[in-house]
Amino acid sequence: MATSKPQLLVDLNAVVLAVTEDQPRVLTVAPAGYPDLAKTLRALPFGPFDLERDRALERCIHDTVARQTGGKLGYVEQLYTFADKGRDPREQAGAGRILSIAYLALVQEGVLETADDASWEDCYAYFPWEDWRGGRPALLDEIGAALHAWVESSPGKARIGQRDRVEICFGLGNAGWDAYKVLERYELLYEAQLISEYWADRGREPGTELSPHLGRSMAFDHRRILATGLGRIRGKLRYRPVAFELLPEAFTLLRLQQVVEALSGLQLHKQNFRRFVERSGLVEGTGQREVLTGGRPAELFRFRRAVLRERRAPGVATLQPPRDI
Fold first, then answer.
1. Packing angle, helices 139-152 and 182-191, rounded to 10
2. Domain range holding 145?
3. Whether the Cβ atoms of residue 79 and residue 61 lie closer than 8 Å to each other
4. pTM score, two decimals?
5. Please, what are the averages of pLDDT over each run of 10 residues along the chain (325 residues)?
6. How big is the CA angle at 183 (ends 180 and 188), to the nearest 5 degrees?
């Protein structure tokens, strides 16, 4: 007698990022169909890919975000495919393996008029150790102490490699801060049993006093997906002009700098940044100035599209923390 194979279900997830004023924001929803989770946790927009109804993955993610949040997507790229066993509670209920294809989208934040359960949230509320704009986060001292204690509890042969991994990921000791390692840092905290999701996945309350201070949790593994998206956008700042997707057609150089700082979590030197952007041919003046209620009006610029033909990697900045941090 033939046995039926476990069913494979395909979901789509969207990491929708915006920068409002000087804050990186992520679009979130209440996890529909999970009333217990919806009381306390937010999720990324997500929904099923119907093999019969949906003609294309990208069209489906546009429709999913519009249906759940009322928002429209502009720039979209495929981010990653998540298929770890046990990553979705539906598996425990016998629904089969859940494979999620995640997308990264960049938009300008808008009012969500058609969805009561959708909201924009501060990205760094989920990753407080990633925001260095006000200096090195004090939380890193607590994280470092907890991770070093975890390393010391590891088997002797693994201890040296784990210690190096901890210091490189979190810029401890003489290792510098690498802004791109967002996912690696999150996964290390999970592995060290410090992140609340580690305990939630096992149906238990957080086992350390530090866990509640390590940012807000998300439903399912959506904070991991968000970490993947934030790391991707930081990496693309080096070689693609993605920051301009988050700006209106005309903008000031200060506004452009604020967008890059918000996404990178780093404070940039104003004059050096301005000099780099102007010399790289990324922008051109509009001949207009920003209308202000007080002070000197700032010159307005626009993205210079010809740079896409002139340079193979027209990035906005290389992300390094200031030397005095």
1. 50
2. 128-215
3. no
4. 0.92
5. 66 96 94 84 93 90 92 93 81 79 92 74 98 96 96 81 93 92 97 92 82 93 97 94 95 95 95 91 93 79 94 77 50
6. 120
Sign, CA torsion 192/151/211/18: negative
Q: Which of 215, 249, 272 lies at the terminal end of a domain, its last residue?
A: 215
- Overall domain count for the chain: 3
One domain, residues 50 and 114 = yes
**Angle in degrees, CA 250, 65, 180, rounded to 5:** 65
In this structure, the strands spanning 75-82 and 118-122 are unpaired
Among the residues of the chain, which ranges form H helices? Answer: 35-38, 57-69, 89-92, 139-152, 156-170, 182-191, 196-200, 222-236, 253-264, 270-279, 307-310
Residue type for position 13: N
